[in-house]
Structure to design on (105 residues):
């Protein structure tokens, strides 16, 4: 995601416990989630809320029930899902809602 004209900002990523995702970071003012996959590809996803980014970065199971009664997302209880599965369902499967681009480093 372009963070705006002339805004080549480095998003600091943290390692996550996942078989498919190596690290995840978030830029709050741009609402941009940056995901590095195990294979090395890096993508940025736009229009991601802080709460949703936190669930991806920390793993949905670590969040209390206040996050929408047992993490119901689109009518699906995903409170015990792994990070990669949660990311794929909540963000990657909705490209029209979360536009994305591959980042070359």
């Amino acid at each position: 995601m372009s963070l705006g004209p002339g805004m080549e900002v480095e998003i600091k990523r943290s390692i996550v416990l996942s078989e498919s995702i190596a690290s995840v970071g978030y830029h709050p003012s741009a609402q941009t989630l940056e995901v590095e996959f195990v294979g090395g590809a890096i993508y940025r996803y736009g229009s991601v809320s802080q709460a949703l980014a936190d669930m991806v970065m920390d793993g949905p199971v670590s969040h209390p029930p206040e996050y929408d009664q047992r993490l119901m997302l689109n009518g699906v209880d995903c409170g015990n899902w792994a990070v990669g599965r949660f990311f794929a369902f909540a963000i990657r499967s909705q490209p029209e809602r979360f536009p994305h681009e591959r980042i070359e480093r």
Q: What stands out?
A: The mean pLDDT is 80. The beta strands are 13-15, 21-27, 32-37, 42-45, 72-73, 76-77, 100-103. The longest strand covers residues 21-27.
